[in-house]
Design brief:
This protein is of the alpha/beta class. The chain has 12 helices and 13 strands. The strands form 3 sheets. The chain has a 6-stranded mixed β-sheet, covered by helices on one side. Helix 9 links the parallel strand 8 and strand 9. The relative contact order is 0.14.
Length: 340
């Protein structure tokens, strides 16, 4: 019984040399094609002969011809070399027109009702063979784990604080406004802060039970609490609820403006100042340099920029800041880190 070949002794370089020698049927021509000296090619060939226990090449017909053993090796070696070349090419570049990559994005519909539809349209137009997995946005522990394990490539949303180990790319900022029905009294006479706090508010269901969103977090820091009478996990349904009731939705102007032409609703300012909402995409270091992930993040930035309302209507693009990440401390990132 022949001894098994110690495959850990055969490297990719040796396979490429042998495949070239067998294809050229000449050590001299193989050396020229590989850009090596002939003695170096001969040394590799001698080592492989010892490992396989076969001559691999013999003289015949005016030149060298593969043995039966070597002939059976040509096909598998070619496949190994093709797969290796493909693997390295995938690491070097991403070709959206031909890629069959699957992109996973976790996001909520509170960004803009047009954001996800236009993102999908852009991805399918530029990468027609790709697959897209849209997932609901979870709380901080959930999306940190999903990013770290590769379950999702990017999460998109707005957070008061961002985990320091994640990269952060700002998409746009937006003014906080209130959406009310056209028949709501506040549309005609406005409101005081006590009146606004006592009004019937509708708010999205918390991603993590017991936590507060950015609006209620800001109120809590000022010792205030609004009267939330409806919680809804589907943000896209809330404007229709507002249109047929006295409910008040407090969120970004850009989101609200998408409904003023199709529903009997109006935008009114809140009776106190809120910091601008900041929308981000977050990703893990494991995909920071991956070409496909870089292309996805750039596409997300492009779609977000195209959706920003022109003419100072409340949603203004932020200064370019493709990627930031805190070095050690938790909280919002401070040190800029380029997404390239």
């Amino acid at each position: 019984m022949s001894r098994p070949v110690p495959w850990d002794s055969i490297d990719l370089h040796s396979i490429r040399v042998l495949h070239t020698v067998l294809s050229e049927r000449s050590v001299t021509r193989a050396a020229v094609r590989l850009g090596l000296h002939q003695p170096a090619v001969s040394a590799v060939l001698r080592r492989l002969r010892r490992l396989t226990g076969d001559a691999l090449l013999v003289r015949g017909g005016g030149g060298l011809v593969p043995t039966a053993v070597a002939q059976r090796m040509i096909g598998p070696m070619g496949e190994i070399l093709r797969q290796a070349d493909g693997m390295l090419a995938a690491a070097r570049a991403f070709d959206p027109a031909h890629s069959e990559h699957t992109f996973s994005v976790a996001a909520s519909d509170y960004l803009d009702p047009w954001f996800l539809p236009r993102l999908v349209a852009r991805l399918k137009a530029q990468a027609p063979h790709c697959r897209i997995d849209l997932q609901p946005l979870g709380g901080v522990p959930d999306y940190r784990q999903r990013l770290a394990t590769g379950e999702v490539d990017v999460v998109i949303g707005n957070w008061p604080e961002v985990p320091g180990e994640l990269h952060q790319g700002r998409l746009f900022g937006d003014e906080v406004v209130c959406l009310v029905a056209q028949h709501h009294p506040a549309r005609r006479r406005g409101w005081t802060l006590p009146e606004w706090l006592a009004a019937e508010h509708v708010a999205p269901t918390a991603l993590v039970p017991g936590t507060r969103g950015v609006i209620d977090e800001h109120l809590a820091r000022r010792g205030l609490q609004r009267n939330i009478v409806v919680r809804c996990p589907h943000f896209g349904l809330i404007p229709a609820m507002v249109a047929d009731s006295l409910l008040v939705l407090t969120t970004g102007r850009q989101y609200c403006e998408r409904f003023t032409a199709t529903l009997p609703v109006a935008i009114v300012p809140p009776p106190l100042d809120f910091p601008r909402l900041q929308y981000y995409q977050l990703w893990h270091d494991r995909t920071h340099h991956a070409p496909a992930a870089q292309w996805l993040r750039q596409t997300i930035r492009d779609v977000a920029a195209a959706l920003v309302a022109p003419g100072g209507t409340g949603a203004a693009a932020l200064p370019s800041m493709p990627s930031t990440r805190a070095a050690q401390a938790p909280g919002p990132s401070q040190a800029a880190r380029t997404d390239r």
